[in-house]
Each structure stands twice: as structure tokens, then as C-alpha cells.
From TrEMBL:
Protein name per UniProt: Nucleoside diphosphate kinase
Active site positions, chain numbering: H117 (pros-phosphohistidine intermediate)
Family note: Belongs to the NDK family.
Binding-site residues for ATP, renumbered to this chain: K11, F59, R87, T93, R104, N114
Domain Nucleoside diphosphate kinase-like: 3-140
Natural source organism: Chytriomyces confervae
Length: 150
């Protein structure tokens, strides 16, 4: 993992429930660097691409319907081990087994309303970043990095 990039998406329920700031805050406070951010409402075809590996699952149609029910907030975070670390911040797929202190553990109940997406590996993250940010991401230095990384 080491220096990598992570695709995070506040799902329609997270946006509706006013949890965008809360989710951004957790990644910001941790020390990760925000390199892309947008509110967007893509159609069915785009979300079917995003969740292509789940298209045989019985919950797939419901998942796509939910994901197209309102705008999402798409973002890219960069940092050391950001994929592994991001999955920890997010919690388990099922909020029921997500520890308190995690995003899903603190703010969600149902698996089909788990408020936030996070890439599960470095390769899928890069694939998702290309899908959601074809325009590219920002590149900038942060003076504070010297106080986050040894
Ligand atoms: P994650 O979002 O933790 O990476 P995933 O990639 O396996 O989990 O699934 C994507 C989303 O699909 C997940 O956030 C919620 C939904 N989902 C997964 N398993 C499900 C299930 N058994 N029933 C209903 N929805 C499910
Ligand atoms: Mg996944």
C-alpha cells in the first residue's frame, strides 16, 4: 500500500442525512490529503460500471436503485496506507458488525444504507478514480506533512 490513493463516496443516504462534513472530517483529521471532491448524480450505467463485480448478486438491482436515488459526494484521498486505513475508518460492510468509532459503526444500521463507499484495494481504487474523475485530480504539497509523516 504505502503512498497510495483512495476513492471515497458519500452515498445518497449519507448526503441526505447531512453526514458529508462528518465523513470528510474523519479523513482530514487523520492526516490524509484531499486531492479531488465533487457532488455528482451519475446515472444507472455509471453506477453499474462502479459495482460491475457485484452484478450477479441478488441485491444488485436494489443497490443500483439506491445509489441513483440522489446525489453522491465523490472524493479522492492520498496518503500512506490510505486504502487499508480508509477501510478501518469506514468499518465493515455490514454496520451491525462495524465497531463504534467507525463511520458505519457510528452512523448506520442497515447494510443497504451504509452511507459511504471506500475502495477495497489499491488496484480497485485506481480503477474507481479513473471512472469517477476522468478529468484528473489535484497535485499540491502540504507544509503540514512534515508533522504527520516521520
Ligand atoms: P463494501 O461497500 O464494504 O466494499 P461490497 O463491495 O461487498 O462492500 O458491496 C458493495 C455494497 O453493496 C455494500 O456497501 C452494500 C451492498 N451490499 C453488499 N452486500 C450486501 C448484501 N448482502 N445485502 C445487501 N446489500 C449488500
Ligand atoms: Mg466494495
Amino acid at each position: 500500500d504505502v503512498l497510495s490513493r483512495l476513492y471515497i463516496m458519500v452515498k445518497p443516504d449519507g448526503v441526505q442525512r447531512g453526514l458529508v462534513g462528518e465523513i470528510i472530517k474523519r479523513f482530514e483529521s487523520k492526516g490524509f490529503k484531499l486531492i479531488a471532491l465533487k457532488l455528482t448524480a451519475p446515472g444507472k450505467a455509471h453506477l453499474e460500471k462502479h459495482y460491475a463485480d457485484l452484478k450477479e448478486k441478488k441485491f444488485f438491482p436494489g443497490l443500483i436503485e439506491y445509489m441513483t436515488s440522489g446525489p453522491v459526494v465523490a472524493m479522492v484521498w492520498a496518503g500512506k496506507n490510505v486504502v487499508k486505513s480508509g477501510r478501518v475508518l469506514l468499518g465493515e460492510t455490514n454496520p451491525l458488525t462495524s465497531a463504534p468509532g467507525t463511520i458505519r459503526g457510528d452512523f448506520a444500521i442497515d447494510i443497504g444504507r451504509n452511507i459511504c463507499h471506500g475502495s477495497d484495494a489499491v488496484e480497485s481504487a485506481e480503477h474507481e478514480i479513473a471512472l469517477w474523475f476522468p478529468e484528473g485530480v489535484a497535485q499540491y504539497d502540504r507544509a503540514v506533512d512534515a508533522w504527520i509523516y516521520e
